[in-house]
Amino acid sequence: MAAFNPTLVLSLIMVLSFSTIQTSLGARHLLQSIPTLPTIPTMPTIPSIPKVALPPLPAMPTVPQATLPTPLPTTMPTVPTTLPPLPSAQIPPALPNPTLPTLPTVPKVTLPPMPSIPTTIPSIPTIPSTMPTVPLYSPPPSN
To answer: What domain of life does the UniProt record list for this protein's source (predicted)?
Structure first.
């Protein structure tokens, strides 16, 4: 595990304090200065567009009038109101029922009996509440 280094913590505190000092000095400078609004530059004038004379439109050509045929039909053809009979459907003769092949018989298999399930829950060992004593080695005898 790395040892605690107080130099690192001290350097971080110094960096934070210097950064806040510079920030507060800059804010004070901005608050004490007289605000000057920038002047808006004047927009250049747009030159006028010269008028362009268009040539006159050509004259409309005359279109000949369509003539209708002289004998117009006076009666409309009749529409049939009944439908022709549908063709008769011829049903094919009944098909014989298919037969399935016989399946081989499966021999009977007996399973071994199931193991018995215990009905009681085993007890959980308890945690000792006292700490065991650890023998400490005594220092070597002095001469």
So the answer is: Eukaryota
- Residue whose tokens read 């279109």: 63
Write out the two tokens for 36: 């000057």
CA distance 20 to 26: 10
Backbone angles phi, psi at 30, to 5 degrees: -65, -35
Whole-angstrom Cα distance, residue 15 to residue 8?
Answer: 11
Please give the helix or strand (H or E) that residue 21 lies within, else none. Answer: helix 6-32
Identity of residue 27? A
The DSSP call for residue 32 is H
| d(C-alpha 14, C-alpha 22), whole Å | 12
pTM (two decimals)? 0.19
Backbone φ and ψ of 69, nearest 5°: -65, 145
Rg (CA), the chain: 56
Q: Cite the beta strand spans of 5-134 per DSSP E.
A: none
